[in-house]
Specification:
flat, c-terminal domain of poly(a) binding protein, about 75% helix, mainly alpha
């Protein structure tokens, strides 16, 4: 890995992130606000740690909100009344921060 890549990271990942966020910003205000709130929840609960899983989850979420917007559905018609549970279901199979820490502990003590 080059020193440049170590310092600044992978630009293709950053480009992908910017494109994803641009898609989200093009949503109507109600849907964009919901996206940002769900995104914040997922970051704060440690539900996502792997970039590939993160990308899939957020793209799926944007897809759902774009479809809901096009169909004239309200956000809670898609998520249900318990939005946190909806978000938890989105990342149910993803490896969490807690899973990562458990693995590190188990690997450290052999």
């Amino acid at each position: 890995m080059s020193i440049f890549k170590k310092i600044f990271g992978d630009f293709s990942e950053k480009k992908t992130w910017r494109e994803m966020e641009s898609r989200a910003k093009s949503l109507p205000e109600e849907y964009y606000s919901a996206y940002k709130a769900m995104q914040k929840y997922l970051w704060n609960t440690g539900g996502l740690i792997d970039w590939q899983e993160t990308k899939l989850v957020f793209n799926h979420l944007i897809d759902l909100l774009e479809e809901a917007s096009a169909d004239g559905k309200r956000v809670k018609e898609v998520t249900g009344s318990d939005v946190a549970a909806f978000c938890d279901d989105l990342v149910a199979d993803a490896k969490s921060w807690v899973d990562k820490q458990r693995q590190k502990l188990n690997d450290a003590i052999k």
